[in-house]
Amino acid sequence: MSDRQLPKWSELKPLLRPKPIELDATKRRLDSALTIADLRRVAKRRTPTSVFDYTDGAAEAEISLRRARATFAGLEFHPAILQDVSAIDLSTDFLGKPSALPFSFAPTGFTRMMQHEGERAVVRVADRVGIPYSLSTMGTTSIEDVAAAAPNARKWFQLYVWKDRSAGEELMTRAKEAGYEALVLTVDVPVAGARLRDTRNGFAIPPALTVRTVADAALHPSWWVNLLTTEPLTFASLASWDGTVAELLNTLFDPTMTVADLEWVRSCWDGPLVIKGIQTVHDARLVMDAGVDAIVLSNHGGRQLDRAPVPLRLLPDVREALGDDAEIMLDTGVMSGADVVAAIALGASSVMVGRAYLYGLMAGGEAGVQRAADILTAEARRTMALLGARRIADLGPQHVRLP
Fold first, then answer.
1. Of the residues 78, 116, 220, 300, which is catalytic?
2. For residue 323, how many other CB atoms are within 10 A of its CB?
3. Which residues pair with 171 in a beta bridge?
4. 346-375: per-residue pLDDT in tens?
5. What pLDDT digit, counting tens, does each position of 116-127 carry?
6. Residue 300 catalytic?
7. Which of 54, 138, 228, 368 has its CA 20 to 30 A from that of 391?
8. Which residue ranges run through the membrane (predicted)?
9. Helix H segments across 78-164?
10. Whose CA is closest to 334, among 381, 295, 368, 372?
11. Residue 52, SS3?
12. Which one of 3.30.530.20, 3.20.20.70, 3.40.50.2000, 3.40.30.110 gives the CATH number of domain 34-74+91-383?
């Protein structure tokens, strides 16, 4: 038996490495977030319930969103060993132009409602990391102001078709004049989905000062101070609205639109055209045959038709039907860089992320969006290295098996 002895200070000193105190509270919060799920938890603490639920929630029983996330969680990676993965290249092409990463920032409505920096913060981060950003028709910063916030960023404009077609024509003209390179036409909102969290929370645009929201304000004072002391909420596409999101969508959007109306869009927009909201192989063929440049397999993040197809499950069949040359993007349920890599391996050309960066925005403004991008990038790079894939082009179905 060896004799015990008290350790000497000279032996203890090298083991004592206190972590430097970070005085910046935002940086401290964000540094502690290692995943998008961590950012979501921070966002939930810092944002009023009705606003957080608008971002986090989905339609009806939220089955579509749960299924999408369960599909990503349940897939199995098949790594190739003994590959040289000393240098990982995440770059790829979107619509014929280079992107530093295989994902883009999806269009999201009412972004300044999540955090007052809003779309300007998102487009600046997109510019820094070298990816496209899509501004929503229902964005809360104007087309021109987003363009001015990041003049060199790759900017796309997402369009909903209104009953008043002249309003859509005006938006397309403004986007073109402001330097937006592509139009993303969303086609899965003929009417608003039933987002029950919003109804139960009494969520309205702008937020109403009810007894419930005043009580919630006491728990989230900084959010309310920022809302009330910064520029009033404005929209990319209309001056104001006083009502619920569902009422807004049902009032403005055109439920009569058909594939024949793509000719009208083409007559107004001469740049790349992307159709977002494809949920069947038939419709993928239909719009590609109509001459669009790319499609997005999407069920609107589970926010429209509950029990809609899971885009990731649909992806291999659409890729087989359209062939290798078709540009196929995908969204819904993406919460990690590993999810991005899996989607590309199964046939996606690229991935759109929405909630992931919104959680970052709510957690810490522009710095939070940057943190979300950094997390996704690091996860994607690590996943590719562990799969034995050096480049995006090296990924394929051999790397992933769906449950």
1. 300
2. 8
3. none
4. 999 999 999 999 999 999 999 999 999 999
5. 999 999 999 999
6. yes
7. 368
8. none
9. 111-114, 118-129, 143-149
10. 372
11. helix
12. 3.20.20.70
